[in-house]
Amino acid sequence: MRVLEAKFVQGFMRMADDGWNQGWHERNGGNLTYRIKKEEAESIREELSEDGEWKEIGTAVPALAGEYFLVTGSGKYFRNVMSDPEDSIAVIELDDKGENYRICWGLVNGGRPTSELPSHLMNHEVKMQATGGKHRVIYHAHTTNVIALTFVLPLKDEVFTRELWEMATECPVVFPDGIGVVGWMVPGGREIAVATSELMKKYDVAVWAHHGMFCSGEDFDLTFGLMHTVEKSAEILVKMLSMRPDKLQTITAENFRDLAVDFKVELPERFLFEK
Ligand code: 2HA
Ligand code: ZN
C-alpha cells in the first residue's frame, strides 16, 4: 500500500489539520507523533527506504528500539500537512538501541523530524510502559487559553487540575488523573523532555508554562479530544476570570466525589482540597 493511502496516515493528517483549524499551530508551532503498529508498518513496507542515514535522537529510549513513528517535520507547518504531506511529515525508524533514527519516507525536500523529538519519544516510552502498549499518540500544541492561564495561576499540578475540572463537568471524567505543569524551560532538548516524561508517568496531560501543552492517548480521536477538552475548559476559565475574579458558585469537592461514584472514575483526593 502507498503510505498516503494508509488509514493511520490519513488519521494523522486529519488531526494535524484539525489542530491548525483550531488556531493552535501558528507558523511552525506544535508537533505530532504516532507510534506505528507492526502490521501498519508492514502494510506500507514497499515505500519505506532503508538507505537513510542514522542520526542521533539526542536521548536514549531503549524500550522503543526498532519502532517506527509517523512524525511532523522540524520547521514544517501544520497548515501544509494536508496539501503537501510528503514535504511536511515523515516515517522514521529507531535503531536497535533506541538512540538513533533514520528517515524511511517523507520530508522529500530535506529536513528532520520535529525539534521536540526527544520529548515525544521519552513520552512515548513512558506511556507505552504505563499503559501496556495502548498509548500511541503524543501531541504538542500551542493552546492559547492554557498558555494565558500560565501567567496568572500558580504553576502547580493541583491548581491547574482543580481549576480546569471546575470549568466543565465532563473534565474530571475526561482527565481523571489530572494535569501536570512544567515551569518555563528551554524547549527542544533533553532536560525539558525528562521533566515532561516524569509527569507523563502520572498524567496524560502536561502544561509547558508560557508555551503550550503535551497530550498522550491511544488514538487520534482520544488524543485530539483530550487536548480540545482541556483547552476549552481553559477558555471558560479565561472568560470567567475576565468577567469577575471570583466565582459566585462552582462545582464543589463534594460534587466531584458524587460524580466519581456515578461515572466510575477515581479522582485523587489531593485535587479535592477544601478552598
Ligand atoms: O515549533 O512547537 O516547541 C515547534 C514547537 C517547539
Ligand atoms: Zn512548541
List keywords for this structure.
binds Dihydroxyacetone; Aldolase_II/adducin_N; single chain; lyase; alpha+beta; elongated; 275 residues; 9-stranded mixed sheet; Rhamnulose-1-phosphate aldolase; binds zinc ion
Secondary structure layout plus pairing:
Elements: H1 7-22, E1 31-35, H2 38-43, E2 55-56, E3 68-72, H3 85-88, E4 89-94, E5 100-106, H4 117-130, E6 137-141, H5 144-149, H6 157-166, H7 171-174, E7 180-182, H8 190-200, E8 205-208, E9 212-217, H9 220-243, H10 253-263
Parallel strand pairs: 7-8
Antiparallel strand pairs: 1-3, 1-6, 2-5, 3-4, 4-5, 6-9, 8-9
This protein binds Dihydroxyacetone and zinc ion.
Zinc ion (ZN) binds next to loops.
Q: How would you describe this protein?
A:
Helix content is 39%, strand content 16%. The protein has 275 residues and is α+β, with helices and mostly antiparallel strands. A 9-stranded mixed β-sheet has the order 2-5-4-3-1-6-9-8-7, sandwiched between helices. Helix 4 (117-130) runs parallel beside helix 8 (190-200) and helix 6 crosses helix 9. The longest helix is centred in the C-terminal third of the chain and has 24 residues, at 220-243. The protein is elongated and about 60 Å long. Dihydroxyacetone is lined by residues 28-31, 115-116, 140, 187. Zinc ion (ZN) is lined by residues 29-30, 140, 142, 187, 211-212.
In short:
This protein is an alpha+beta fold and 275 residues long. It contains ten helices and nine strands.
